[in-house]
User: Fold this.
Amino acid sequence: MDVEELTESIIRGLMFLAGILGNNWLAIRSLPGKKSGIRTNEVLFINLAVSNLITNYLVDLPDTMADFTGHWFLGETYCGVFRFCADLSETSSIYTTFFISTFWYQKLVGSLKRGGAPVQLDSLCLVGCLLAGSWTVALVFSIPHFFFIKVETGNDSHADCIDVFPNAIAMQIYDVFYLILANALPIAGIVFASVQIVITLLQNQRRIKGHNSDATKEMVKDEIESDESRNNGTSVTFASGPSTSKDPNDSASLTHIYTGQSAPPNTETNKHSRAGAPPSLSRPSQMPAKPSPSSSTQVRAAKSVVAVASVFLVCWLTHLLLRITNSIHTSSMLVEVASYIAASYTCIIPYIFLHGVKKLSCTCKG
Assistant:
């Protein structure tokens, strides 16, 4: 094994270890506690971790071992298992990422625009049906690999596990349906959900800035009126000047309109105002409301979804292009590069999701 092959094998091994650690940690941290039932987002995270762990244990591990030995040594039987697990976990992982993106988009909109209203995907029954459907689609596309595989020995006597369809037309038909149903459609859904998340976050940020600007203008206006009143020797409550109202409580009402308090039932405030005591101005009563903890959680998780979608698109669009290119012109190098890109996705996204839901660190209570 030369230096280049050794370097590639070491990189692949490190990616494998990162994927094993991250996906196991995501699955463990998504398990429900003793006092709480399982929630929808936990089911989705666990399913994603299981899908990626199939790739880590049954695809990346034997592939890494084959890299170190320099050839495929596990036999033709496991070659079928290898190809079957590769497409099974890949399809399930893509669909699960799509469901997670849609779920957090709905949660974000429900939290920021509808006051925490329930969302359609926040249902264990519905999510269970969707996940069962995604595994069925993945199974349908993975079964042919048990029948159309071969361990091929090249000119350099290195054996590789490859797919061998009866003819080129059958392979093209399979690739077209696989790329459309198992890649293009869920990827389009992920892009749409991510774009909507970004738009929602920008609209909410613009709304908060506008609210803060209005509140600041109101405070400046009140301070200017207060300074003018002091310079004129009058109180901001107009209690020292003649009142046009016959009711002595009206001046107190004006006082508390400015201070943001309710008027007291007696006239003690008027007496203190007539004594010449300068009134203390408080901030306007309508200050910008701070986001609730639940809204902050939804925003943080939604941002992690956008980050995952960005990594997903870079990895899987490249992977998709390589698959299309390989269907036109078969190349072992393209297959190798595509496998590296797929492995990079499974070892990165669990850490992004763990950071998004604040479960990346371990909090041990004594």
Observations:
- The mean pLDDT is 75.
- The longest helix spans residues 168-231.
